[in-house]
Please model this.
Amino acid sequence: KAMHLCPRCGTTLSNFEVAQGYKDIEDYAVTVKLPLLDEPLTSLLIWTTTPWTLPGNAAAAVNADAVYVKAKLGDEYFIVAENRLQAVLGDSARVVAQLQGRELVGKRYAPPFPYFEEQLHKHKTHAWKVYAAPYVTFEDGTGIVHLAPAYGADDLELAQKEKIPLIHHVTDEGKFVSTVTDFAGLPVKPKGNHKETDAKIVAWLKEHAVLFAQEFITHSYPHCWRCDTPLLNWAANSWFVKVSQIKKKLLAENSKISWVPEHVGSARFRNGIESAPDWAISRSRYWGAPLPVWRHSKTKEIKVIGSVKELLSMVRTSGNKYFVMRHGEAEQNLLGIVSSSTAQKYSLTEKGKEDARKAAQALHASGVKIDIICVSPIYRTQQTAHIAAEVLGVPSERVFTDERLGEIKFGVLEGHPVVEHHLEYSNSPEQFDRKPEGGESAMEVRRRMGEFLFELESRYPNKNILIVSHGTPLWQLIAVAEGADKRRTWEMFATVYPKKSVIHELPFIPFPHNKDYELDLHRPYIDEVSMGSSMHGKWERIPDVFDCWFESGSMPFASNHYPFKKDTFNPKKLLGFAPKGYPADFIAEGLDQTRGWFYSLLVLGSALFGKSPYKNVIVNGLVLASDGQKMSKRLRNYPDPMDVVERYGADSLRYYLLSSSVIRAEDLRFNERGVEEVSKKLLMRLDNVRSFYDLYKNETPRVATSKNILDQWILSRLGELIRDTTEGFQKYELDTAVRPLASFIDDLSTWYLRRSRDRFKDGGEDTTQALATLRHVLYTTAHSMAPVMPFFADDLFLRVREEGDAQSVHLSQWPAKLPIDETLIHEMKQVRLAASEGLQLREQEGIKVRQPLARFSTTVVVSSDWGLIMVASEVNVKKVETATESSLDTHLTLELREEGTVRDLVRRVQEWRKSEGLSINDRPSYSLT
Model:
């Protein structure tokens, strides 16, 4: 199949990998002559934007139903589509014949380059001939298409249908093959100067008089998303997921997903599914998860392996059986010390000798005939092996001492208590690489034991082998036989650590392993697995690895080791139990993942389990630099995020991003001033409210009811906040969930608190109600802001919590629904509109708010008495009335002037108190001069 190849990475790319790397570049566009063999001085004209493909030209194609013309220009004749005549040949050409495209089909021509004429002699009936192709169009070019089937999807499809030969004139490294003698070894699309080789091709065409015209065009060209190398369209063998077969299912499942924003799923993602080709999932790479596919060398039969167990069942083994035995009780065991010295001969105790004899007798009685004994060089194991050999009838020449079976080397801890070494060097997996001075680590023991076991497997066939060694080496040997990693080896300690004088059979099948003898299914280890025989044919793994997107799409089940473990993940409903871990309630990623992770998840989940692996998706756009360019480490066109956090706090940055358009799959130009604004208008304002509460707080518990109209209003606004944030989060619309917080904090700070300040100072029932209400509002606000501003929310919560509340806002329940008085909220809006109108009139008249006025006429309808009183207080007038036009009575009586003077005096006293740093409890004396 035609795919895109990255010559630098040496592998093909999937369609959604290709989609990530398109760039606009300038390229050559050439019009080339293809001289007809049966019409002297007559040429077909072909047009291409990839001159490097011309040495691989194998055929030409026309639209059978289109009209073509033969036109004379100078001394030559050229054939092009009629509707391209003017664009290609201009006004000077004279039409001498008109013909249907089908009349051109079958005509033969001389190829533009001669390199493959001899090689393709036997295919000459199919090569360098004109074919009909429905995909030939006339928007540009000549109406005749050049075919290089190895480098184009449409070309390849036609070639497979018409048996046109495939000419691979470029290697998978992106260089011309040696047959292309004039350009052999040149990269066809070199990174850094992609036109360099095309320029040489064009020069050759011109020199050999087959170039008709050349120009430069700008077009979108795919580049490798990893290394930025221009990609080559490339006919390659691959393994595919047949997406075309499950497309209807994918579309049906997509329609059930809740996308935010909705249009990403209903348009972009849906369109991607509808146009998606079969998914090429194999890659010609070294790194990656190997395809578990084996091919028989003789029969070519294909076998797909589904588990390690199945793989090991096919592995050719030696036929050996292994038995392990730890030495009997020895003197150093009674002393409770460690010893790995061959010079210090700690002998077996009488009990140890007897136990070793009994263990050997039991093995003999079971009918097992031991052929070989392998033993550690240390004295206590030598004694044990001698006893076993005597009982089992193994001659001395079949008892082999191997240094690799020796005890773990203790170095400077030789002769020290056992517990001292254990606690420091083998008490956890993390300690397996540690060792005492002059000693040996557990991992070093593991490697020598692994080397020993695999060597036995390759050296001896069909033998029963007894291995006599020590506790730690045998523990590591048992772990090696299982292919266990460090964590699993440590877990095995409690259950498999060998007891003295006990013989166990050691199940072992050679497996692919790394240098630490851990099961490793990656290359090169998996490629070394031998199955079958040279006589009857071997099973050989195909060398490809999985596309990394196949692995990411496998995440839901692969990360849970399904189907081998089903405790945390099981997509199937069994015996009335609901599926576990599938589908996910919610995932989030960038817009580019509509061709990546979102897509691979949906394809694999729907194909394997019949449903989408996710219910809700949030799609974000890109965060760009303030100038609209991509953020670049090289250009340093963005502030350090941690500096932003240091200046404004992590909560400000979180809110800025979550309330922005980037949450709706749109790009965001990051502006630090936006974060600063959040810090000032949200956090600092709310912190000021909290500080004010701290100033007057007492033991008054929070209450959600009050007689005061301002309290009732802010509680209704709090109800709106909880309603809006809850609905937003439930719909996964994060921006609509968090934005109401800003307007609520503004209302709380600039209206409620400002209008209520005197209530906190007066004492009495109204003060109690104000404190109780504000405490409740701050407590509930902390909950509503916790998901988006977690740090500030928790601090606020801890300052207003009561005994019996949770220890953190993040351990609390989400706020319950609160009553909302819509009439009250509307009336307060009218009050604020009227007040704003009055203050605007004052500003126009140049009269300070401190100066009382007699009357304010407003066009805003305020229905309530309390509303009129509040407007009068806010605008500082004696009377408010509704009128068809707004106006202020600016006439100042003596009484009004005196009242204004008093207010000025009060303001100056307050400013003086502030400048002197006086607290609310300070009571200085004043004198006026």
Q: What stands out?
A: The chain has a mean pLDDT of 91.
